[in-house]
Amino acid sequence: MERGADHCPFDIVVGYTRTEDDERIILSQSEERIASRLAVSRTAIAAARALLDRAVRDRANAYGGSLALGYGWEEYLLPRVPALVGKTLPDGALLHAALSFGADPAIALECSARGLRQPDFLFLVTRDDATGIAGADAKLGLDTVDAAQVSAETTTRILTGGGPLAQAIIAALAPSETPATDGYILTPQRILNDLVLDGARPNGMPRPRLPERSHVVMISLRGADLLRAVATGPFARALVEGTDEAIEADASVDVAVLITLATHLLLGMWREGETPLIIGRIPVEPPAPEQYDTALAWGHTRILRAGSAWEAAVQAANRARPRIEARAQVQEALQPPLADPQVRDALGSIRGKPGRIARATAAEAYRTALLAALPPDVPDRGDALLDAIQTARRRDMDALRARTIAAIHDALRRTDDAPIENAPAASSE
User: Fold this and answer.
1) Kind of pairing, strands 121-127 and 130-138?
2) Which whole-number Å values give the CA distances from 249 to 55, 237, 340, in the listed order?
3) Among 172, 185, 230, 354, fewest CB within 10 Å belongs to which?
4) Cα–Cα–Cα angle for 205, 211, 213, nearest 5°?
5) 8 A C-beta contact, residue 424 and residue 171
6) Which residues pair with 184 in a beta bridge?
7) Please, are residues 52 and 203 in contact by the beta-carbon 8 Å criterion?
8) Cα separation of 231 and 285, whole Å?
């Protein structure tokens, strides 16, 4: 039976308890303070420290691991945030109501088209006898936080300048005269987050702009529950089944994150052996059922040889470095002309998550058209592919630009047509 299969209560972390085993794993002064509060393992501490390293993140992100994890945490929170209603938040505010906001792609795109930064949720809170609307944003790690995303100023701009989709959600949450107030970051209890709060700076990355600590809402979460929420999580768990990492993932979010990133790196290496290089597909989902066992055996063999999922992924990536470099060059050549004035005009002022959606739609359309324009007999070599891509771009640039702009317009049109489903009634509290 899988460890930790029982449901784990979803709640705000209000404190930490010492375990009976008082052995500390000391790697730094800040980690000593964390080890005194959390039940940690050597693997969990090592995973958290590795995830603060830019080189590790860049290597893993090449195959979409962070994107999948971010979506997984957001999907985990969506049905559970309402369970926080009626609870007191760390700053002493009482949460009266909570509605999904920027987590809805249609609303996020609408706000971004108006130059607005949007949080994933809107909260109705009361603090010191004053009621206000606060933004709340889901962040799996505090190392990438920007407090401006949930500031009162940002939320005020949404309340006054949001489009019809946003206004419908706001009207369902509170009366129109309700002011904005500083919001919250929703993040899981994990070692990396405690390191960041204790002053650790991500290596090679900008320092996060954190809100006040009382506006960081830490949510209890097991690594096993995060793995279930991420599309590749079950495959990641299967890769390390029977190892220490699989056991620790029941309690350690950091280990679960590192296993997922390693899985994406291994899947990328496996798929590049199965798929022509020119497709450049980011494996944000597990293998197809008919390929599942083959991919699992391939990855599991390398893990047993290397000793851990991450070491196996790094070894596979190092052996395939020439292919990775060629893939990177081809991928760079396949990037859409987003700096083109006509394409820039089509995108307008779209930013944030909706901007990423619009750009991803444009990139997919551009890539598909460009690959279709390549001669069928192009050798599957980096230099030959680059020459063919550059020739096709020079020859068909007008048609490729038009296809890109049409994809952007289509994404915007789908947003305008998206209805709001099951909008809740205004809170009476």
Assistant:
1) antiparallel
2) 23, 8, 46
3) 172
4) 110
5) no
6) 136
7) yes
8) 6
What is this structure's pTM?
A: 0.71
CA–CA gap between residue 296 and residue 291 (Å, rounded): 9
Residue-wise pLDDT tens for the chain (429 aa)? 333 333 444 566 543 333 333 323 233 434 344 333 334 466 777 888 888 887 777 777 767 888 889 889 988 999 999 999 999 999 999 999 999 998 778 888 888 888 888 899 999 999 988 999 999 999 999 988 999 999 999 999 999 998 999 999 999 999 989 999 999 999 999 999 998 998 888 787 788 899 999 999 999 888 999 999 999 999 999 998 877 777 777 778 998 999 999 998 888 888 776 665 544 556 678 888 999 999 999 998 998 888 888 888 888 777 766 666 666 677 778 888 888 888 888 888 776 667 777 788 888 888 888 888 888 888 766 677 788 888 998 899 999 999 999 988 888 777 655 554 444 444 444
- Taking a C-beta distance cutoff of 8 angstroms, is the pair 220, 17 a contact? no
Spatial strand order of the sheet with 216-219 comes to 94-100, 121-127, 130-138, 180-188, 216-219
Tokens at 283, concatenated = 């494996």
Which ranges in 275-336 belong to alpha helices (H)? Answer: 289-306, 309-319, 321-333
Here the contacts of 319-326 (C-beta below 8 Å, separation 24 or greater) are 320/269, 320/272, 323/272, 323/277, 324/62, 325/382, 326/277, 326/381, 326/382, 326/385
Question: How many angstroms from the chain centroid is the CA of residue 12?
Answer: 21
Q: Which two tokens stand for residue 331?
A: 């991928």
**Closest C-alpha among 289, 301, 239, 244 to residue 264:** 239
Domain boundaries, the chain: 29-39+78-221, 227-319, 333-417
Query: How many angstroms separate the CA atoms of 85 and 274, rounded?
Result: 48
**Contact status, residue 267 vs residue 295, Cβ threshold 8 Å:** yes
CB 365 within 8 A of CB 334: no
Q: Copy the structure tokens of residue 235.
A: 């495959």
DSSP 359: H
**180 with 152: CB under 8 angstroms?**
yes
